[in-house]
Write a structure and sequence with these properties.
Layout lengths: L1 E2 L4 E6 L2 E4 L4 E6 L5 E6 L2 E5 L2 E6 L9 E5 L2 E5 L3 E5 L12 E3 L2 E4 L4 E3 L2 E4 L2 E4 L4 E3 L4 E6 L2 E4 L3 E4 L7 E6 L4 E4 L7 E6 L1 E6 L2 E4 L4 E6 L6 E5 L2 E5 L2 E6 L10 E5 L2 E5 L1
Parallel strand pairs: 1-4, 2-5, 3-6, 4-7, 5-8, 6-9, 7-10, 8-11, 9-12, 10-13, 11-14, 12-15, 13-16, 14-17, 15-18, 16-19, 17-20, 18-21, 19-22, 20-23, 21-24, 22-25, 23-26, 24-27, 25-28, 26-29, 27-30
Length: 260
């Protein structure tokens, strides 16, 4: 699929789309300042497939590239929603993705994103990665964020990057399933975890805030309900030299419970 307009270009998916292994649905945009938005109100299944946005403009393009999912979108078996540029453009793309339906990123699949706001259901399964772009990333949850397997939210290596997971007031964050703990990694130069809603963490699970640069900081900020019952919250300095970054904060104005 190709969009060439210099203004708004929209692609709307409805009905059922199934992309089998090896498939690549490519959205190529060439307009000098175009906006390319893909909206799904149906059912999209990527099974070992790729959805690629190719920035093929001949000059810098400040337009937005967004995905708005109001239906069901499933990525599994190494599928990917990714940014590429056949013209070698930098990756400030996918600025304001939204999910008001069901988005499932499963089994070693990746979803490139700078800002992703969930008001529906977002599931991260084993090996899933959200983010992956060299930028300051934000994952905002105002719905249900279900982390059912070992997964990650991280930026690509960049000394100026941050990754902020915000579980907002109306949000529910669930880590692991009954009897099956999960490990979740937030990785960036500065990883931040902010909880204003309710976090339910299966015993035996871990959340790791991993600093990937010697100028990074970290922050855990809870104003909601956060219960650690045999759950580890780990601050990992994955660096080879001293760290002079900031902040290094533990902030609690809600209910933070640690036991076992």
């Amino acid at each position: 699929l190709k969009t060439t307009a210099s203004g708004y270009s929209g692609i709307s998916l409805a009905g059922t789309w199934e992309l089998p292994s090896g498939s690549d649905l490519e959205v190529e945009f060439t307009g000098s300042q175009s906006h390319a938005v893909l909206t799904n109100s149906g059912s999209v299944s990527l099974d070992g497939a790729t959805l690629t946005y190719d920035w093929a403009a001949s000059a810098n393009n400040s337009g937005s590239r967004n995905i708005a999912n109001a239906g069901t979108m499933v990525l599994e078996n190494g599928s990917a929603v990714r940014f590429a540029s056949s013209m070698g453009r930098p990756a400030w793309v996918f600025q304001n993705n939204t999910n008001s339906g069901t988005l499932r990123v499963l089994s070693n699949s990746t979803f490139d994103s700078i800002n992703l706001t969930n008001t529906g259901t977002l599931e991260l399964g084993s090996g899933a990665v959200i983010g992956g772009i060299q930028s300051n990333l934000t994952l905002t949850n105002r719905g249900a964020l279900d982390i059912t397997g070992d997964s990650a939210f991280r930026s690509a290596p960049n000394p100026a990057s941050s990754a902020t997971l915000l579980n907002d007031t109306a949000g529910t964050l669930t880590l692991g399933t009954a009897g099956s703990p999960a490990d979740f990694l937030i990785q960036a130069n500065s990883p931040y975890l902010t909880n204003r809603g309710t976090a339910t963490l299966e015993p035996g699970s871990t959340i790791t805030l991993q600093i990937a640069s010697n100028s990074g900081g970290y922050r855990f900020d809870n104003s909601g309900t956060f219960v650690q019952d045999d759950v580890d919250l780990i601050y990992d300095w994955a660096i080879t030299s001293g760290n002079n970054g900031s902040p290094r904060d533990f902030i609690n104005s809600g209910t933070w419970t640690l036991r076992n």
